[in-house]
Records
---
Amino acid sequence: MKNNKHTIATLGSHSSLQILKGAKDEGFKTLIITTKEREEFYKSFPFIDEFITLASFSDFPSIEDKLKEKNVIIIPHGSFVAHLGTEKNKNMKLPYYGNKSVLDWEEDRRQQREWLSKAGINVPKQYDFEHEPVTYPIIVKSYGAAGGKGYFYAKNKTDFEKKIIAFGNKKFIIQEYVIGVPLYIHYFYSPLTDKLEIMSMDRRYETNADGIGRIPLLGQEGLDIEPSYVVVGNSDLVLRESMLPEAYDMGRKTIEASRKLIDKKGIFGPFCLETIITPDAKFYVLEISCRIVAGTNIFTNGSPYSWLYYNEPMSTGRRIAREIKIAIEKNKLPLILG
Ligand code: ATP
């Protein structure tokens, strides 16, 4: 069936190819908002019907009226917050997939921690370092960092005192450093059916934290290498099946806590818990992303998990379009739009 009345639209960045391919597969018209430099690249794909080219993504509000006439549904991804900021996202008048009320909770690290803690999810210890003794090693995170930039590792107090000088007087938080495997779990929750799915998962490849292990300790000695957590890519990974029920349960708890803390609708659609798993098989959740994450791009053709649910190629982008299609058919679109 063609969903001719609505056009699925997004910014040409982050996971837009996956989102628009999924929308096309579900019978929607597709539209991309892009910039001059990226236009030719996006035009090389066959599933994008319409293009709007801006000088800069931050000009997005100037085309809202035009988009309204085209009956679009906007699918947000990581670049929406990065280029437009939380306020412009909240003020958008267009039909927007997802609950905008979660944006403030996601943006503020303290509120995020409150959300995860109230959900009963294990988070790394955070130190009120002026008032309590710190057990090392630690990771120091500047506020508002993105993709692991501006973090440093300290193995003891002397190390911390040396590095904090170069850090300047930026605001920061200190967390216990959790040694384990970083695993990012991609969930999808449908309020239409009250069903939660684990769509896929990825692990990040971070330079040079993941590269240091390639040099033996003896070879590292004297080199003064500092681990950096800047993300360069994502790779796939499946979790031990015995740990899957717990991963699933964390997703469910996150949804339930959001309904109590944020509003009745809570979080729905795609979201991601960023975890580190320690040798005793314990999950530590570092952060929550309240939308489609870039790691899902590994699975444009579906993942081992989505195959089990759907028996057909089902990316997170396509799952979003499927949800919108079902909501239209059931006359429940307002339930999933912010
Ligand atoms: P993004 O917004 O892109 O998710 P971010 O800048 O908010 O990134 P985090 O996700 O908090 O950063 O962390 C980036 C990386 O730093 C993680 O993938 C992980 O490797 C490392 N890291 C963060 N917190 C800890 C911790 N408590 N223990 C060990 N490593 C950590």
---
Amino acid sequence: MPYKDQYAVFGHPINHSKSPRIHQLFAKQTQQQISYEAQEVPAASFESAIQQFFQQGGKGLNCTVPLKELAWQRAEQLSRRAKLSKAVNTLILQENGTLLGDNTDGIGLVTDLLNNHAIPLSDRRILILGAGGASRGILEPLLQQSPRHIVIANRTVEKAITLSHEFSHLGDIRGCGYDDLNNAQFDLILNATSASLTGELPPLGEHLLAEKGCCYDLAYGNQPTAFVLWGQAQKAEKSLDGLGMLVEQAAEAFYLWRGVRPETSAIIDLLNAERS
Ligand code: NDP
């Protein structure tokens, strides 16, 4: 059997991860000889698992919940976007043996919105629900698209305000609580809370979504999430989940590792067909 470069995703829990399937599809499409496996790694075992993986010839890693912050600390060098997001989802073994940390989540979201769904961002009023790691990772690439403004609403209000201050040099952005949204309206509402994972919904008023506005849940599942259903009930022009973002962030990681950019639309179509 020909030698295959080894890649993996570490996380906890990891058994439902679609990343191995996505990367195997990328490898087949681009004729790259790689293996990619999911490995159950709780935070306490992260350091030993990482050492073992790279000692045994691993070339690159994805890290997901709850390891992105640890990966950020572990990387010996950080890309600019990883520095800003304070989280790493992709580790790349460099020729000098050091680990470069990057974060491809934000570019994955923006690519999915713009290229796959033709949802414009320039001059749009954007509301982000949640102020955790995912919100932090998407702020810079969103602000680079020159939205009219971004509002971050979070259950713990202080976190939203602090996060907005960190990015205020990049555009018009503010943080608040859900009760402070009042009569504001938005062209795009992004759910970056983890509420969907337990079938919950942040407390949202009825008139938040502007006419022809769109909703996008970063979370995804085999069934529409509570937020996707909320968007449909609000008559959103599009109400989508984060499967496309998942594939696009993976494509960016694959490109960083292999120097080849996979064509994503056929793979998103295939994964959508498999879950319906
Ligand atoms: P974090 O744990 O860092 O942050 C969670 C956020 O959700 C916090 O702001 C928290 O508020 C809020 N929250 C949790 N439960 C509720 C609730 N019941 N009501 C209101 N707010 C709530 O998670 P991440 O930022 O890492 O992930 C967020 C989501 O993004 C997850 O669903 C994840 O799967 C998804 N994601 C998807 C990706 C993709 O490729 N599609 C990539 C990355 C993330 P508080 O601060 O008050 O606790």
